[in-house]
Design brief:
The chain has six helices and seven strands, in the order αββαβαβαβαββα. The protein is α/β, with parallel strands linked by helices.
Length: 195
């Protein structure tokens, strides 16, 4: 994994206070608790706007969480490549069929501490249903899934409950769907079915 902003104590402290200030003046607040487990998948949902990434990062800074997140490769073009990697970004080339699930499982097995944020919709555009790689990574790495959220209706973001995948995909996705049923994205018309 790359060197991130969370590894620099001064920046980490300054960004936490800036994030608290920014969320307060915009009417937002952080909710929940950072899970007390060393490794997990953080679901980023719903993902319907370019604003989701900055709000997610502000929320994460408030919790002092060190996360990595996947983003489309075009986001990492110059002059922003190093900056987004510094913020924990991992570029994903959607045009090529890399085995992201297997690589992510291996990375979890090799790491003592790792939080990987994934937006299951895979895009801000309207799609029919979520991509399920996040679930298969968690199951394969034997780690929980934290239901992270940004609720634009209530102006609240944070960490929801932890779900340990049971292997019963449909039952687990039903639980996830019930949690997100009450969460409103910035553009609700772009929300999609979870399964």
């Amino acid at each position: 994994m790359n060197y991130t902003i969370f590894d620099t104590p001064v920046c980490k402290t300054l960004l936490r206070w800036f994030s608290i200030f920014f969320l307060k003046i915009t009417g937002w607040r952080a909710e929940g608790h950072l899970p007390a487990v060393p490794k997990f998948i953080l679901v980023g949902a719903p993902h319907t706007s370019n604003w989701d990434l900055p709000y997610m990062l502000f929320i994460v800074f408030v919790f002092r969480a060190k996360i990595y997140w996947m983003g489309k490769e075009t986001l990492f073009r110059k002059p922003f490549k190093k900056f987004f990697k510094w913020l924990g970004g991992i570029p994903i080339d959607r045009s090529k069929s890399y085995n992201v699930v297997a690589q992510s499982i291996q990375q979890f097995k090799e790491s003592e501490n790792l939080i990987l944020a994934i937006a299951p919709s895979g895009t801000r555009k309207k799609v029919k249903k979520w991509k399920t790689g996040f679930y298969h990574i968690a199951k394969g790495a034997n780690i929980p899934i934290s239901l992270g959220f940004l609720d634009y209706r209530r102006k609240v973001g944070g960490f929801g409950p932890l779900l340990y995948p049971t292997g019963d995909f449909e039952a687990d996705m039903k639980i996830i769907g019930e949690f997100y049923a009450g969460v409103t994205g910035k553009h609700p018309e772009k929300s999609m079915s979870i399964i």
